[in-house]
Amino acid sequence: MSDTQRPDGPEETGEQGLPGLPGLPGEEGPDADRPLPEPIRFFGTTWVDHTGGYALRRIGLGLGSLLLAVVGAYALRLAYEGVAIAELGDWARLLMILAFAICSSIGFSRTLTGFKRRPETEEDAARERSMRSFLLVGFVGVLLAYAVRTLIEAPGEKLHRTEHEAALKSHERRRTARTGNPAKRKRKPKRKPRN
């Protein structure tokens, strides 16, 4: 292809567009300012219309997170055996088991609820940030929650879909409110003031 020739379609340029979603960058027309869906990690915007290997990604990420959870549990077992070999006492082993069990359960529940809602206030966001150490220690629970969520949908898909649909409805209301020629509108008669 010479320098003067330009490719005609997205297949030749390597650009990926979403079918049925007007308003993508570079498009022109009445829906050019339509709100775009927010990408989800590992899924991009394939969650919108479940194309682009969406099902394979869900299966792969679910199995991958399960595999990582198994490897993590094995690493925790090795750590437990190290504490047992060091003969620190029963209290140390019990404390270690309790810490990982509690942190894993907190990580599991926080991760599942995190896919359903965003922090509403700055306090909620600060509370989520303060739980990061628990989530780090309870990484097995976080990975299991991710695997469970991929059985249903892409993690966070429902939240993103709800927000995107609300943005589309808002956009549609704004767009229909300003369509038409304002000069052709009928004027409402002025009301007479009551005395």
Automatic annotation (TrEMBL):
Keyword Chloroplast belongs to the record: no
Ranges for region Disordered: 1-36, 162-195
Tell me the organism's taxonomic lineage: Bacteria, Bacillati, Actinomycetota, Actinomycetes, Kitasatosporales
- Quote the biased-composition stretches of kind Basic residues, using this chain's numbering: 171-195
Any idea what this protein is called? Integral membrane protein
> Which organism is the protein's source?
Streptomyces gossypii
Which spans are transmembrane here? 59-79, 91-112, 133-152
Please provide the record's keywords in A-Z order.
Membrane, Transmembrane, Transmembrane helix
Report biased composition (Low complexity) as residue ranges. Answer: 15-27
This protein's record includes keyword Cell inner membrane: no
